[in-house]
Amino acid sequence: MRILSLFVLLLATCVRADEVQHHGVVFEQWVRDTFFGGYKPKSYTQIWDIPAEINQDHGKIPANPKAIKYGSPIDMGDALRQFRIAEKDERFLLIIGFWTQDGENKKWANAVAVEVTPEQYRKLWEPITRDDLEKLDAIVKNKSLSLADAREEAKRIKGRAPFTKSIMQVNPKIDASQRRLQCSIRFGDFFHFLAPQSDSTKQDKPAIWGVPLPDAFASAPRKLKK
User: Fold this and answer.
1) Is 145 inside any structural domain?
2) N or C, where is the chain less crowded by C-beta within 10 Å?
3) Would you say residue 193 has pLDDT above 80?
4) Which of 101, 27, 89 is nearest to 64 (CA)?
5) Exposure letters 85-101 (e unless 16+ CB within 10 A, then b)
6) pTM score, two decimals?
7) Does residue 226 form part of some domain?
8) Is 223 among the domain residues?
9) Beta strands in the chain (DSSP E)
10) Is residue 224 situated within a structural domain?
């Protein structure tokens, strides 16, 4: 009985998580179905959501689709993983659908598909080195430190050079359920440094490679836990 109750609780948690992330799942699935033959990632921890060999029609380079609230930073994921990408001589696509909340629905406000060069991506990280990042990551994941102490130390390190001088933002995530070091690009910096030819304003009919995004869909605003 206890096992059954735990299963029900876990299932409910997963459903709530799916509901919160529904807009992202819908967008990523639409991108894969529309442009990449319905490809399904083998693992959701793989570096590229769409590997280069799957992308036969848009440059034969890897691609990552993302659904982002309009005006918010673009969450790039694990900081060390992204820094390793910056160290490689590899181009990739960022395919982003920007949404706005409209009552109980979300609707698409902008969409961009941009090719990112190694030079562009490395520039976002300068003057951070891998050693800088690994030291901060070690603090974040050091379980000998209390949550409060880890947060305070990570905040202190993040608040000084070289992190204050880089375009890429590092985001320590430290709480009872996680100790991760993520990274993100500010909305304005994304358009300035990675998509300077793209229009950052809201659009009536956002499209990617000439194909309009799906209509608005039911997805209530996220309720943060107190």
Assistant:
1) yes
2) C
3) yes
4) 27
5) bbeeebbbbbbbbbbeb
6) 0.84
7) no
8) no
9) 63-69, 74-78, 92-102, 105-116, 169-175, 178-185, 207-208, 211-212, 217-218
10) no
